[in-house]
Amino acid sequence: EVQLVESGGALVQPGGSLRLSCEASGSSFNTYNMNWLRHAPGKGLEWVSYISPSSSTIYYAESVKGRFTISRDNAKNSLYLQMDSLRDEDTAIYYCARDGGYGDFVFWYFALWGRGTLVTVSS
Amino acid sequence: VLTQSPGALSLSPGERATLSCRASQSVSGNYFAWYQQKPGQAPRLLIYGVSSRATGIPDRFSGSGSGTDFTLTITSLAPEDFAVYFCQQYGGSPLTFGGGTKVEI
After folding, report:
1. Which residues in chain A have Cβ-Cβ distances shorter than 8 Å to B54?
2. Chain B residues whose beta carbon lies within 8 Å of the beta carbon of residue A102
3. Cα distance from B76 to chain A (closest Cα, Å)?
4. pLDDT tens-place string over residues B48-85
5. Could you report the per-residue pLDDT of A52-95, keeping only the tens digit for each?
6. Which end of chain A is more exposed for a tag (fewer CB within 10 A), N or C?
């Protein structure tokens, strides 16, 4: 069974940086459309970023554009989120999730999720 | 904006659960999904395309609706169904999620 496992969450000061990782088991990671989402305390889930299987297409939510960078290494079955200039409002559990579609087909619902990693931005 | 109601639902095993999700504007196409999440676990896709069950989801889970009103129905609650459920629309940008409904014993 394919699984996604996030890591890298931590307590960081405002203005700081953090790099999250998501490792996928299985052999088809290079066909997955991948996303990062987050769930802040007391708020609804928020989609953060998307990357296509070949990394040729990338999207960001307006709230993180210019501060966060998504990337992937298909040889390592891994997805990353580099988070810079962190703010208090970035505090959340961060999830990686696979889109319901494969390859060129992106459906924008999330068929497989990890358990999440907690990022806390506080001084 | 997606508004889920009720915020919490107290039911017993074997009972029927009806969860509602209302959108502030009409959702384009059939681009609506439901997820289940238990404490400390990954969210799990239940329903996509308004009414299509995801792989491995029991048929006691069903989705329905159109426009601005969508419903997740669990016909007979099993002990493992007590969890938080949240909805998502993917017919428009940005993608949005509801705040969740907790189904508790």
Report:
1. 111
2. none
3. 24
4. 999 999 999 999 999 999 999 999 999 999 999 999 99
5. 999 999 999 999 999 999 999 999 999 999 999 999 999 999 99
6. N
